[in-house]
Every structure is written in C-alpha cells, then in structure tokens.
Write a sequence for this structure.
C-alpha cells in the first residue's frame, strides 16, 4: 500500500538522519566482533572446546542491534510520536495510526537483519569464523528473540506517560541487558553469581538459544529459553494492546 | 431550516471533564459551501468541540454527523474527504516540508497536488527546509497546505491565522474565499474578529461550554452594542462582566 511504503521510505530517512541507530545497531555490533576477534582470535572457547571463543559469542553479538532497536528505539519513537500528537493527527486520516508503528517495527527489523549480515560478514572475512549450526534453525530463533524484544519495547512505549519516562525505562532495561546478558560481555567469563542474575534477563535466555543454534549444539536445553521468549512476547504484546493510548 | 445541503451537524453535544461541563448541549449545522466560525475565549470549549466533531474525543451525550457519516464508526470513509488542521502542530523531528507533504499525500486515495498548494500559500521555495526551521507564520501556512492535501469537501481549521503577519493573513483569506466559491465547507476557530467578519457566514459563540450566540454574523452585530463584530463578541462573552482568561 502506498501509505505504508511512502512512510517506510521517509521514516527510514528520518531514522538514518537521527544517527543513533547507525551507532548503536550497526557500528556497535561490528566493533564488538572486532574486539572479540582481535582479543581472543580463534582461541577455543575453553580448553578442549570444538569451537572458538568468537563462534561462541556470535549469537550474542547478533542481538545487540535487536536490543538497540527493540528496547531503545521502538519505545522512544512510540512515546515521541504520541507526545508530538502525530498518532492523533493520523486518527483524522483514512489510515489507522497503527500503520506508523508497523512502519517503525519494519525499520528496526531491517536494522537488525542488516546488523546480522554485517556481523557475520566481518567475523567470517577477518576472523575466519564459520557458522557451524543450521541457518534454518538459527533464523527462526533469531526472529523469536526479535519478537520478544520488540514486544518489550512496544509495552514500554505504550505504558510510559511521556518521552522522558520512556527514555528512562528504556535505559534501565537496555544497558543492564546489553552488558549482563552476554551481548557485549561474554556470559562465559562472568562469575557464577553474576550468571545467576543474568539468567533472569529474557535476553540471556534468547542468547542461549541463539548460541545453541549457531554452534549446532544438541537442542536439548533450548526448551526453557523458548518458553521464556514466547511468554514474554505474549504477555508484553497483550499488555501493550490492552493499555495502549494513541494520545 | 432551508433545504440547503447540510455538511456538518451537531445535536445536543455534551462533554465534561471530571464533572465539569466543557461543552453543554451544543447544536448547530453548517451548510455546504459555508464558512462557519466557532468563537470563544481560550478554554471556552472550542478545541473540545472540534475534537468531539472529529471523533478524536468521546462525548457523553448528543450526536455528530459530517457529510452524513459518523466520524467514529465511518472514520476511514469520512476522512478521505475531510482535512484537519489541529492547533498544535504535529510533525516528526528533522522532517522537511517536502517530506511532510509527501507522507501526508500518501494517506489519501485522491490527494490534491501539494506542489500547487505550496505555491498558492507562498511556500514554494521551502520544500527542502526543515519544518522546525520555518517561522511561525510559514508553519501555520504549511499546516493549511496539509489540511488541503486530501482535496477535501470539508476542512477544520483550528486557530487559522495565529502567528501570521497582516499580509499573509490577507492571502490566506483570499485563498479560503476562493475555495469556498468552489464549494468547500470550512469550520474554523479564530480570535480575530475582523477575520471572522470577513470570512464567516455563520458563527457560534461559546462561553464556558454554553452557546451564547448562534446565527449569521450580521445578526450578531445587530444584537450587539456597536457596529462591528468585535463589540458584539465582547458583549456576548462578557455579559456577566469579568473574566478575561489568559493564555
């Protein structure tokens, strides 16, 4: 539909002009790969491990962009467009104001997919990374993580009374999740007590899932992460639909 | 009433906020090709009335019809044919004039040519400018362009010429009169009585949500103490003698 594609084009341009997603969703994951690759090289993940440290971290690094878009970008843009009455203005047009939220979700999906591609490319070309798992199981897991993170963002954006609060909640969710779930600091190097704390975060579960899929490990203990991801998605989407305000 | 074609019809419209009546038992009709002025001090209920008419605010009692359609139940069909300029200007940060026109036009099945509208309202050289960098008057004219983009049969203009200089005001008047000749129905609010006297066929004066005058401009002048609308307006709104509301 014309309204959707035109909005996608122009909202996309506006997002690029904003630069923050370029930095947090595109550059940051690449920098993470470069650091992991240079520091650990192709060293095995642990003594006798059949895969390298970088390979172990691949799944985690691919979630940095998802986290930036879903937990930071999405809630901020939703609350901003509500506060600026852009959603309200759309109510007096033939198009549903939900359309613009769909457009934003597509934009953040594109950033994430773009980042996934770049992370893989940099790891493979410069650090000899090989993807051992199956893309057929990795990609569904990747989109499940994306769905659950985006649903958190939708809920925060829907519930926060204004942009300031949305920004605050987003930061409280974003930074700990980014640092302690294994997306930047590898989960494996954390002390066990910190690992226990990290385990509560939904992204940690998502990363465990992606790790198993990208390393081609037996899918034995993926049930818990899958259940966590699916429940987060259902609960957060449900809450945001029930509590959503257009203005 | 005459057998004129009725475009906007409100009957017994009532809305209260927390027990306080914002609009009380408001009834009026606007015929096709008429310019209707909704007048009153700030806080008298003008914007609330417009929002109830457009269906962006719910009301307790009464009914509204625009072009024979219910603004809530037949929203999509109605707003293909209605243009709206809200008092607060809603636009994305960093968006340019051309981009805002383009996304707005994409919402409608048969939009007017916005390039032509920009020329008519003296904004042709501003397409590449950021909306946020426009002067107050330029932005106001841009929002008239956006309201006219659906190629509407009815247009709602809230605080039409606030922020415009004398010359730009005259140009906007001239433009609107031309559109009226072509059959456009206009509902506007304004604080400038010279403007209302020049443009409007019919007016309704609100005071604390109550209708204190409803009828032709000439009737209002006749009923008032002086020989112009401003005297009549002040007389109608200040009958019991005091409040000049600020802001």
């Amino acid at each position: 539909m014309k309204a959707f594609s035109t909005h996608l084009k122009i909202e996309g341009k506006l997002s690029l002009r904003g630069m923050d997603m370029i930095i947090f969703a595109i550059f940051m994951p690449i920098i993470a790969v470069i650091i992991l690759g240079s520091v650990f090289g192709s060293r095995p993940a642990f003594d006798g491990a059949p895969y390298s440290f970088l390979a172990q971290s691949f799944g985690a690094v691919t979630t940095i962009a998802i986290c930036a878009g879903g937990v930071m970008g999405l809630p901020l843009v939703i609350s901003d467009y509500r506060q600026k009455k852009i959603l309200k203005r759309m109510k007096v047009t033939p198009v549903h104001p939900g359309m613009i939220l769909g457009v934003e979700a597509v934009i953040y999906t594109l950033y994430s997919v773009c980042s996934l591609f770049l992370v893989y490319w940099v790891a493979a070309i410069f650090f000899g990374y090989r993807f051992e798992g199956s893309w057929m199981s990795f990609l569904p897991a990747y989109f499940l993580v994306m769905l659950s993170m985006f649903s958190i963002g939708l809920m925060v954006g829907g519930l926060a009374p204004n942009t300031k609060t949305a920004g605050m909640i987003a930061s409280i969710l974003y930074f700990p999740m980014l640092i302690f779930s294994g997306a930047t600091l590898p989960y494996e190097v954390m002390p066990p007590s910190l690992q226990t704390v990290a385990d509560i975060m939904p992204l940690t579960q998502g990363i465990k899932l992606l790790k198993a899929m990208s390393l081609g490990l037996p899918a034995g203990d993926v049930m818990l992460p899958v259940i966590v991801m699916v429940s987060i998605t259902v609960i957060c989407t449900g809450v945001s639909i029930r509590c959503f305000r257009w203005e | 009433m005459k057998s004129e074609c009725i475009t906007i019809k409100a009957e017994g419209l009532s809305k209260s906020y927390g027990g306080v009546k914002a609009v009380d038992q408001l009834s009026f009709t606007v015929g096709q090709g008429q310019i209707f002025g909704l007048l009153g001090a700030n806080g008298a209920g003008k914007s609330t009335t417009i929002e109830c008419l457009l269906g962006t605010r719910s009301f307790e009692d009464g009914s509204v019809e625009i072009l024979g359609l219910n603004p809530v139940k037949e929203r999509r069909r109605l707003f293909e044919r209605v243009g709206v300029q809200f008092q607060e200007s809603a636009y994305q940060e960093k968006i340019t004039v051309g981009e805002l026109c383009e996304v707005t036009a994409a919402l409608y099945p048969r939009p007017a040519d916005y390039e032509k509208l920009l020329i008519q309202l003296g904004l042709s050289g501003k397409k590449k400018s950021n909306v946020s960098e426009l002067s107050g008057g330029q932005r106001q004219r841009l929002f008239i362009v956006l309201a006219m983009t659906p190629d509407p049969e009815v247009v709602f203009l809230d605080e039409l010429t606030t922020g415009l200089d004398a010359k730009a005001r005259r140009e906007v008047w001239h433009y609107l009169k031309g559109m009226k000749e072509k059959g456009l129905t206009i509902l506007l609010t304004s604080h400038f009585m010279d403007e209302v006297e020049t443009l409007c066929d019919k007016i309704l004066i609100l005071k604390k949500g109550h209708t204190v005058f409803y009828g032709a401009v000439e009737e209002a002048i006749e009923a008032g103490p002086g020989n112009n609308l401003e005297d009549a307006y002040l007389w109608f709104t200040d009958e019991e003698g005091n409040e000049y509301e600020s802001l």
The mean pLDDT of chain A is 91. Residues 2-243 of chain A form one domain. DSSP finds eleven helices and no strands in chain A.
